[in-house]
Every structure is written in C-alpha cells, then in structure tokens.
Amino acid sequence: MIYTYYRHFYILHLLFYILHFKKASTIFTTNLNMPKIHSFSPKCKFTVLFHILKVFQMRYIIFLIALIFISLTCSPRSVRHFLTLNEVEQASPNAAQLKTATSGSQNSCANQLNYVPDANHLDHSTLRLVRLNFHIMRNGKGKGSFKKAEAVQYVKDWIREANKHLSKNSEMNLPVGNNTPLLPTNYRYVLAADPSIPGDEGVYFHNDDELCYFVKTGKNKNNYVKTHFTKYGVQKGKVLNVFMVPHHPDSIASKTYKPTKTGIAFVREGAIKVAGNYHHYTTPKMKNGKPFNRGAWYFHGIFNHEIGHVLGLHHTWRSNDGCDDTPHHANCYSQNRKRKECIDGWSNNVMDYNTHQNSWTPCQIGIIHRNFAKKDAPQRGLLVPTWCKLNPEKNIYIDENIVWKGAKDLEGHLTIRKGGTLTVNCRISLPKNGKITVKSGATLILDGATLENDCGDQWQGIIIEGSGSSKGKVVFVNDPVLTDMENPLEG
Ligand SMILES: [Zn+2]
Question: Strand 128-138 vs strand 187-191: parallel, antiparallel, or unpaired?
Fold first, then answer.
C-alpha cells in the first residue's frame, strides 16, 4: 500500500527547521547577552545543556505526534495508492446507471463481433504474431523439391509476400456496391526455429518416398492424411507446421492433370499442406515471349487461405461461415465476361477460390482474434506470447466511455484518464509489472471481468489517484475475478 504523505513531511521538515533556527539563535543570543554563563562549572554547564535539550526534545516529540495525528485524521486520503477492497463500489447488474455501460452480457466474450478492431481506437487491439515452420518433402533420394539454400530463401519470401497482403487488407468486391469497413487484420507470420535444435532455422527436410508427393485421387490418395504432421511435426501446438508437398512427377507428366496451387488445412493440429510451389518455381510461364516466374509471391493467396482455416475461418461462397459480411456467390475465380454471374460477381475474399484472395472482412478478423484470445483454443498456442513482457510503447489510455466486450491481452499499462469510463466484460491479461491506473475523475467498471497475468507472473495491481469526490472510481458488477496481483485488494 502506498501512502504519499510527502506534503505533510514537507511541512514537518519546515517546522523542524524553524524550531532549530530558533533554538540555535536563542542559545547564541543568551551566550552573548549573559556572559555569566561562562563562569558556570563544567558539570553545571552540562546539566543546563541537558535540561535545555530535554525540553527541546519533548517539544519535538509532542510536535511530531501532533502533526502525525493531524495528517492521519484531518487531511484527505492519499492522492495515489493501490485500490483497497473497501473503496470498491459494488453494483447490481441491473443498476440503472450501469445499464448503458454494461449492455454486453457474459456471452459477449464468445461473440466474434466483439473482437473486430475498433476503428476509432485501433491501439486497443493487439498485433498477433503466428509462429510458422516449414517442411520440405522430397523423395528418398533427396530430390523432387527445393534444395536447402533455395528452400530457406523461398520460405522467407513466402512469409514476406503473405504478410504484405495481411498488412494491406483490400476492400471487399462483394456484394456489389458494399460499404464493408476496411480494417487491419492485426496478425502476421514469423518463422520460428526450435530453440532445442542448435542452428535451427525452422525449415526442415524430409526424404520420404511414401509421403513425398501430394496425391489427390486414386488408391494412393494422401492429401487428407495427417501422417506428415504426426511423423515430422516440430514444436506441435506451439508452431503452425507448413508442409510443402510437391505434385507427383507422373501426375505432372499427364496431360489431364493440373499441377495447380492447392492445399489442405488441419485445424486441431495447427498444420497445413500446400502443393505446387516447386513446380511453379521451376516452371516459368511464357508471357509476351518472355519467361514469367511464379515464385513465392504466386502462393500468397493459398497460404493465407489455408492458414485462415487453421485460424478458424470457413469458405464463404455457399456455407454458413458465421459472418453476415461475406455474401454467398457463384465463386467465380476471376472476372469472366462469358459468364453473366462472373462479370461483376467475382470475389476477392481470402476464403473463396479466386485469383486475389486478399480481402478479410471485419467479421472474419473478429473470428480469428476471438480464437487468439480464447485461452484453451489451439490457435492461441501458435502465437508469440507478446503479452508477457511489459512494452511501454503499447500503453493504452482511455479518455471516453469505452466498453470492452471481448477478451484482451494487454502488452503495456492501462490508464483511464479524467472523464473516461472503461467497462470490462471479459478476460484481460496484463504483462508482468503492468498496472491499471484510474485517474482522478475516471471510472473503471469490472462487469464479470477477469483480470490476470497469463504468463505465470504477477501484474502490479490497480492504482487509484485523486482524493475526495474526484477520486478515481472502481465499480464491481457480477463478481469480477482479480488474480496474479502483486498488490491484491485488501479490506
Ligand atoms: Zn479452403
């Protein structure tokens, strides 16, 4: 508990100083004007001095006690201290003054729309980093796919191209004339090496005749088998494992087989398989008489699409994907003037089959971030835990009436400033040493909320500023849970 009495100590110090000055000048004056004092015996001098000091000492003690008493009883409560339980205002869920602020129910924590970034307060959302590693499947002789150096470069290019589209979300093509808000996707990919493997880069090579190729049909069909993951997966559950499985050379040689870019997602495992990279990398198309290389950039769409499945998204054109902003449509691959429905009706959404795959709707972004925020979701396990270490650049300041209806992992301190009211309905994780400050004239309403540190550490606690009627206010509704605090609430 912090009690800041510095003002009182300052006054006390000043008074002591005056008293000292008075005492010193009194002795000095006495000595000057009473020369007889010099004729006292040493013993007598000592006794006189002792009595003088005793008197002054008594005065000091009485003065000190009086001032401490005054500061404890008469002055307002400290201006900055950790919240105590008896300062908390308990409110019923139906209290009229809270109705508008707590319109969200506890179910709000599972609603994807409550995880859509707030366009007016983009700093309230967190950029998530998804860890990836890559597996290059080759035949038993180590052939049929990328060599080591070119694979590592390809993988880095692939991540860069996919991230480029994630960072430049495009407006939706559909429905025609739509005004769907364009919001940041707020997630990116990072290559994740295994710290337990010396010199590891997060790119692995597997020479395996049985699992080498991507087979879509026939008795050797293996596109849906999970064996690649179970046999070769690295950092399972912590890193999204990407398997690059080439088309079979016999299939490619067939005139009827199309070695297209294609893929499969394994949501629970946190893995994807993609086929076609090596074929397109090594087989340039001729365009205007010149070779046109379809390298890593060409696979950004399928990459974001398959990872979109892992992160919780579904196809949009005919299924119920849980979003109202992704309309059903004819699933045209691109604009096709020979097909009436494809003249204007082609999609650019990442979860359709189209040539663009570069648009994420607010609802789709919400689904992904709901899964990232859900503590037992497999998607959360794939993230770099950026919420564990305090980052002062990620401090959040609340100046208005704000309601957080979805869970959040804060990376910096949270401050509610004068005139601001923050209502928290779900879980909030604070980083180690992170704190919440409720400034003078500000309000924090914890409505069924959980405040915690999700890294096994402690956050500092809630600091209240101000005094009297303008003191920062904290309101509890629906039994919030506050845990992992260095300064827990005391009565
Ligand atoms: Zn798909």
Answer: parallel
Angle at 169 between CA 201 and CA 235, to 5 degrees: 25
Distance from C-alpha of 286 to C-alpha of 282, rounded to nearest angstrom: 13
Return the bridge partners of 271, or none. 241, 266
Residue among 431, 488, 429, 406 at smallest CA distance from 110: 406
> What is the DSSP annotation of 39-85?
GS-HHHHHHHHHHHHHHHHHHHHHHHHHHHHHHHHTSPPPSEEE--G
Q: Where are the alpha helices (DSSP H) in 168-324?
A: 227-232, 249-253, 277-282, 300-310
In whole angstroms, give the CA distance from residue 300 to residue 280: 13
How far, in Å, CA of 247 to CA of 427, rounded? 45
Q: Please say if the pLDDT value at position 5 is more than 80.
A: no
Say how many Å lie between the CA of residue 359 and the centre of ligand 1: 15
Report the separation in Å between the CA atom of 305 and the middle of ligand 1, taken as the mean of its atom positions: 6
Task: Convert 325-335 to b/e letters by CB count within 10 Å (16 or more is b).
Answer: bbbebebbeee
Q: What is the pLDDT of residues 68-99, one digit of tens each?
A: 555 555 455 558 999 999 999 999 986 544 54
SS3 state at 362: helix
Cα–Cα distance measured from residue 118 to residue 128, given in angstroms and rounded to the nearest whole number: 16
Which tens digits make up the pLDDT trace of 263-284? 999 999 999 999 999 999 999 8
Give dist(CA 197, CA 203) in Å, integer: 12
Quote the CA–CA distance of 151 and 286 in Å, as a whole number.
24
C-alpha 308 – ligand 1 centre gap (Å): 8
pLDDT above 70 (res 388) = yes
pTM value surpassing 0.70: yes
Instruction: Measure 128 CA to ligand 1 centroid, in angstroms.
Output: 22
Q: How far is the CA of 309 from the centre of ligand 1 (A)?
A: 7
Which token pair is 323? 């979003």
- DSSP H helices, 102-257, are 148-167, 227-232, 249-253
Residue 365 in tokens: 């972004």
- CA dist 484 and 486 (Å) reads 7
Say how many Å lie between the CA of residue 418 and the centre of ligand 1.
Answer: 48
Q: For position 204, what pLDDT does the model report? A: 98
